[in-house]
C-alpha cells in the first residue's frame, strides 16, 4: 500500500497508519498544513541566497511584524515581499521570505491548493520546491518554478552523477533528459502548459498541483480551479482518475537511489543566477545593455510597486 513516509520512527508511522482511514486509491492522509501550520511546521531561513539573488530573507518575528507573512481571515496563508520600499542597487536586496518544513518526507502523494502564486513580474524568481539533506546527492524536486514574465510552470529534477529520464506520455514538453550533474545546473526539465503559473494562474482563481512520488517515477498534475478532481476536494484522492500528468519523470534513472527524504521550501527571490541571467531576453526593461543582471537589480530596487502581486496564498498542503 503506497503511503507517504515522514522521517519519524517506524512506530510513530505505524500508529498513524492504524488510526487513519485508507483512501480509495490506497493512500492515507499523513499530514495537513493550512493557516497557522505554516508558522509552526516551517522554519524561516535568514541566510544568504544560494542562488545569488538581490534579496534579504526576513526572520519570522520581523516578517510577521511587517506583514510579509500572515494568516488571512479566511484561513489562507499569505507569504509576500516588500512592495513599498525603494532600494539602492548597492545595498541589501528586497525583503522577502523563505520557509522550509521542519520535517523531511519521502515517497507518497503531495497535494497543494494555491489561491495565488507570485505573478509574472520582471525580476522575480518564485519557487515551491524540495531538497534532501545532502545536495545534490539526495536530490532536488522543483515543483513550481518560473522567472520574470513566465506563464508556464517548469518542473525540474536535480541530483548527482548521471540520471536519465525518457519521453513519457504527458501534457508538458520534456526539454532536458539529464537530471544529474552531467547536465551542469540545468537538470531534467518539463515545460508545463501555458497558464500553469504566474499571472494567468491567478486570474483563473488558482488551482491544485499534485505530485506522486514512487520508487520508479515522479508524476505531476496541474488542475485549474474549475477542473479539480472530486476525489481531491473530498479528501480521498484517486490518482487513477487524474488523467495524463503534466510531467512524468521516469527512465533508466533509479528514482529511489537518487531522491531521498526531502524538505519542502517556499521562497521568492529576485534576479539571481536564473532570473537575472535571462532578464534582458525576457521582455523586461533594460537599463544597462552590458549586463542583464545589473538591469534586473536596478528594476527590482527602483520599482517596489511592481511586486504587489509577488505573493503566495496557500489554501492547504496535504501529504498522503
TrEMBL record:
Question: Sorted alphabetically, which PROSITE patterns does this protein's record hold?
Answer: GH16_2
Keyword check for Nucleotide-binding:
no
Residue span(s) of domain GH16: 31-283
Query: Any idea where this protein resides?
Result: Cell membrane
Q: Give any GO molecular function from the UniProt entry.
A: endo-1,3(4)-beta-glucanase activity
Q: Name one GO cellular component term.
A: plasma membrane
Q: How does it sit in the membrane?
A: Lipid-anchor; GPI-anchor
The signal sequence is 1-24
**EC number from the UniProt entry:** 3.2.1.6
Record's keyword terms, sorted: Carbohydrate metabolism, Cell membrane, Cellulose degradation, Glycoprotein, Glycosidase, GPI-anchor, Hydrolase, Lipoprotein, Membrane, Polysaccharide degradation, Signal
Q: Which residues form a coiled coil?
A: none
What processes does the entry annotate via GO biological process terms?
cellulose catabolic process
Entry-linked InterPro entries = Beta-glucanase-like (IPR000757), ConA-like_dom_sf (IPR013320), Glycosyl_Hydrlase_16 (IPR050546)
**Family assignment?**
Belongs to the glycosyl hydrolase 16 family.
Name this protein carries in UniProt? endo-1,3(4)-beta-glucanase
**Protein's organism:** Aspergillus vadensis (strain CBS 113365 / IMI 142717 / IBT 24658)
